[in-house]
Amino acid sequence: HHTTLSREWHERAKWGKKYEPCRAQEKAEKIAREQREKAPLKNPFIFVYVRQKLKDKRWSPETIAGRLPIDFPGESIHHETIYRYIYNHRKTWGMKLWKYLAKHRKRRMKKDGRKVKTTPYLRALPLVERPMEAEDRQVVGHWETDNLGGKVSDRQAVSGTTERKSRYTTLTLLKDKSSRTKMRSIKQKLSKLPDLFHKSLTIDNGPENAKHKLLKNVFEGGVYSCQPYNSWEKGSVENMFGRVRRFITKGTSLDTVDKHTIKTIEHWLNHTPRKCLNFRTPYEIMQQELESVNKQGGAFQVRM
To answer: How confident is the model at residue 118 (pLDDT cuts 50, 70, 90)?
Structure first.
């Protein structure tokens, strides 16, 4: 059609330039390729939601995909789509969105384990004797604890304690690495909860847990220790520290970390939806448990 010829001429021969068919063809093919490129995410609304939760909240793609239909019924996206958007989309690679993921990896990698050194000491009760109710996570009050690894020369330490059912977590910045300091911090943190929430504690064989007998009167069900090199036996606290690594990467000196940072990370952990909780937050689960148990004087509140 003559209007097609006219439009092509005016677009490719502007400002008195000569019309060059080869250059015009290259331009047309480039436009065609860009037009056929798939959209990065499903629609503009989901695009904004995913970017906001990934960058501002530091949520994982699986958490984003699981929480989206709860926040906005009728909307959905698969977590693998978000991963492809982060790693494979040519327009987003330069944005380095992988920095907002838990492991900060430039390439997707297979999961691999690691070995942890242990120090022999007077062990607590063997884990096989722990009540079965702690295994199925149906009853609240069973806890796991460990210390976050830093540099060998660090004076400070970070202690983390996680409840198995709700995944509710307490983090404490310790002034030193002694076992007595750690046990006192656990006792102080959990004293804010009713006695019914002090059923058992699971530890490893590290020297920071050598004074576990100081907690004998705190946990009515006792203190239990894992087998050497069996870190998965306290998987809740190990998973929690994996999330903490988003903010305190490996190799970071814990002497450079302050209490405000630890408090901020603790708040993030307890207010981030979890897949294992049907995308509810640990704080929501813990409040529900407290309100169902404590009937006197109103609901018991955990201040975060």
So the answer is: very low
Q: Above 90 in pLDDT, residue 36? A: no
Instruction: Compute the distance between CA of residue 280 and CA of residue 273 in angstroms, rounded to an integer.
Output: 5
Read off the pLDDT of residues 137-177 as tens digits, 9 standing for 90 and up.
Answer: 999 999 999 999 888 889 999 999 999 999 999 999 999 99
The pTM (predicted TM-score) of the whole model is 0.65
The helix/strand/coil state of 33 is helix
The pair phi, psi for residue 267, each rounded to 5°, is -60, -40
3-state secondary structure of 104: coil
DSSP code of 15?
A: G
Q: Which two tokens stand for residue 212?
A: 């576990």
CB 252 within 8 A of CB 150: yes
* CA–CA dist 78, 101 (Å, integer): 16
Does the pLDDT value for residue 63 go beyond 90?
A: yes
147 vs 90: CA distance, rounded Å? 40
Q: How far apart are CA 128 and CA 210, in angstroms?
A: 20
3-state helix, strand, coil in the chain (%, to 5): 45, 10, 45
- Give which of 282, 240, 272, 270 is closest to 66, Cα–Cα: 272
Residue 229: phi and psi, rounded to 5, are: 65, 15
